[in-house]
């Protein structure tokens, strides 16, 4: 979905391309590649914004190991009851993100972050967040660095078709993502 969002926003794609060129220049000085990947700050916010709009899971499931009372509500969640946290809906709630339907990576820049960290949940949150989060983020960055450095992505006339199916975690799977790709 990240390639689709940058194809729809050529100015974002260009900014990423410029950051990737700086990354490659930095690599020529034999710098530590792991540190260099962490310096791709604009790429981080593009990935974050893409995952906000298109999280892999519609909801997150949790099962409490003991009864838990939600403070100030009088509501008790019973031990072993499945709780669904609607990540997709939270990510698109205007109370948490202004203009939630708009792709705006800058909302995740350090100086602009205004949301509660527990309202951004593509990998869950807290001590039981996704174990593979760091690996997934690194693999996404590696793929984007290689693809954007070599190719330009364009949308086609065919609209994006999102479909969903239920699987553990309520996964979202696009039915169709059509892009035109050209060499740089």
UniProtKB/TrEMBL annotation:
Recorded GO CC terms: endoplasmic reticulum membrane
Membrane topology: Peripheral membrane protein
Ligand binding (heme): 130
Subcellular location per the Swiss-Prot or TrEMBL entry: Endoplasmic reticulum membrane; Microsome membrane
Pfam families xrefs: p450
Keyword check for Transcription: no
Sorted UniProt keywords: Endoplasmic reticulum, Heme, Iron, Membrane, Metal-binding, Microsome, Monooxygenase, Oxidoreductase
Domain of life of the source: Eukaryota
Needed co-factor(s): heme
Main location: endoplasmic reticulum
GO molecular function: heme binding; iron ion binding; monooxygenase activity; oxidoreductase activity, acting on paired donors, with incorporation or reduction of molecular oxygen
Coiled-coil features, chain-numbered ranges: none
Key word Magnesium present: no
PROSITE patterns listed in its UniProt record: CYTOCHROME_P450
Family: Belongs to the cytochrome P450 family.
Function: May be involved in the metabolism of insect hormones and in the breakdown of synthetic insecticides.
Protein's name in the database: Cytochrome P450
């Amino acid at each position: 979905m990240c390639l689709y969002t940058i194809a729809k926003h050529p100015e974002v794609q260009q900014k990423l391309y410029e950051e990737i060129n700086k990354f490659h220049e930095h690599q020529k000085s034999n710098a530590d590649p792991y540190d260099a990947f962490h310096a791709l700050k604009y790429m981080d916010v593009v990935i974050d914004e893409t995952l906000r709009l298109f999280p892999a899971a519609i909801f997150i499931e949790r099962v409490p190991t003991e009864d838990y009372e939600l403070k100030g509500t009088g509501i008790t969640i019973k031990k072993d009851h499945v709780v669904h946290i609607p990540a997709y809906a939270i990510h698109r709630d205007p109370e948490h993100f202004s203009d939630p339907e708009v792709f705006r990576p800058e909302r995740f820049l350090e100086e602009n972050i205004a949301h509660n960290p527990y309202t951004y949940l593509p990998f869950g949150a807290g001590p039981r967040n996704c174990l593979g989060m760091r690996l997934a983020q690194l693999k996404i960055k590696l793929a984007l660095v290689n693809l954007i450095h070599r190719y330009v992505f364009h949308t086609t006339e065919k609209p994006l078709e999102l479909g969903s199916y239920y699987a553990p975690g309520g996964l979202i799977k696009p039915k169709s993502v059509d892009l035109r790709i050209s060499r740089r």
